Amino acid sequence: MRGTSEASRKAVLKAFGPVASASGADGMKLGRELFVVVDALDGSASLRRALTDPARDADAKAALVKHLFGGLDSRVTDVVADFAARRWSEDLDLRVAVEEAGVEAMLAAAQNAGVIETVEEELFQVQRLLEGERDLLVALSNRSVSREIRLELLEGVLKGRLNEVTHALLRRAVEKVRGQRLITTIKLLVQAAADRRGRLLASVVSAVELSAAQRTRLVTILQSAYGHEIQLNVAVDPEVLGGIKVQVGTEVVDGTVLARLDEARRRLVSQR
Fold first, then answer.
1. Which residues contact 265 (CB under 8 A, 6 or more apart)?
2. What is the DSSP string of 151-164?
3. DSSP for 201-229, written as a single string
4. What pairing do the DSSP bridges indicate for beta strands 200-206 and 230-236?
5. What average pLDDT does the chain have?
6. Rounded distance, CA 133 to CA 57, Å?
7. Backbone phi, then psi, for 230, in 5-degree steps?
8. What φ, ψ does residue 243 adopt, rounded to 5°?
9. Using alpha carbons only, how large is the chain's radius of gyration in Å?
10. What is the DSSP string of 83-110?
11. Can you list the pairs that 174-182 forms with residues at least 24 positions away whose Cβ atoms lie under 8 Å?
């Protein structure tokens, strides 16, 4: 998103956060209803233009939202009307922002139920599974395959073993495969869950499984460096040969043997 849309997204989501938190078990309902709005926006360019037209009065946009979605929960129509009252760089950005609000509502339900950490871990494990199973990832991401077939394939993988919120978010990700890669969508869900818990997400790739003591030590180092609680997600990849690679946000600290060998190779080449 460009600056104008990003500012609108942040402002509305910040106001919606406490509403989602106070919704309790209703968070799942709010999330599903917000996804209904997203689907309507997906299916109608004229609706997106009407709700993002800067020349149109905010009250008129709110009235249109109430007219079209009056059968939904008032908390849903309120946040959609708030989104519509803002300014957007592109009409498609409104759809993305409403989708994020739906995710926020579902994660709030998980947090209220005391299972947000479980949801985050399950999303991460599915992310790692798909990163290691390229054929499966391609099949789930293939927009030329019908939605029903993709969802059936997903259900065959999940086998009903995940939390309700995890399951709903993954179904949504597969159901609405868009421009960005499916694996990117899942990574963003993991990040959103960490954000909901008030933690920075540190993604770690290691040649071998880290012991509990090593994990604790790494968390302590990262918390000291960033001054913030850290959620550590560790994946094992034997191809790194040794050491670890840590990513926090956009910052990457690569201490793997592979990285060091690659650096040595580049130095040798530059000296020829």
1. none
2. HHHHHHHHTT-S-H
3. EEEEEESSPPPHHHHHHHHHHHHHHHTS-
4. parallel
5. 90
6. 49
7. -115, 135
8. 75, -170
9. 21
10. HHHS--SSHHHHHHHHHHHHHHHHHHHH
11. 174/140, 174/150, 175/147, 175/150, 175/151, 176/38, 176/42, 176/99, 177/140, 177/141, 177/142, 177/143, 177/150, 181/141, 182/130, 182/137, 182/140, 182/141
Q: What are the tens digits of pLDDT across the range 138-189?
A: 999 988 889 999 999 999 999 888 999 999 999 999 998 775 689 999 999 9
Q: Which residue in 93, 95, 85, 92 sits closest to 39, CA to CA?
A: 95
Amino acid at 105: A
pLDDT at position 210 is 87
Give the largest Cα separation in the chain, rounded: 71
Cα–chain-centroid distance for residue 78? 23
Q: In the block, which residue shows the tokens 């191809």?
A: 239
Residue whose pair of structure tokens reads 């309790």 in the numeric block: 24
Examine the pLDDT at 46 and tell me if it is beyond 70: yes
> Which residue bears the tokens 């969508």?
185
Question: Which pTM was predicted?
Answer: 0.83
Q: Say which residue the tokens 């869900």 belong to.
A: 189
| CB within 8 Å of 61: residues ≥ 6 apart | 50, 51, 53, 81, 84, 85
Instruction: Categorise residue 38: left if φ over 0, alpha if ψ from -120 to 50, beta otherwise.
Output: alpha
Q: What is the pLDDT of residues 182-220, one digit of tens each?
A: 999 999 999 999 999 888 888 888 888 888 988 898 888
Element (H, E) at 193: helix 182-196
- How far is residue 68's CA from residue 45's CA, in Å, rounded to a whole number? 15
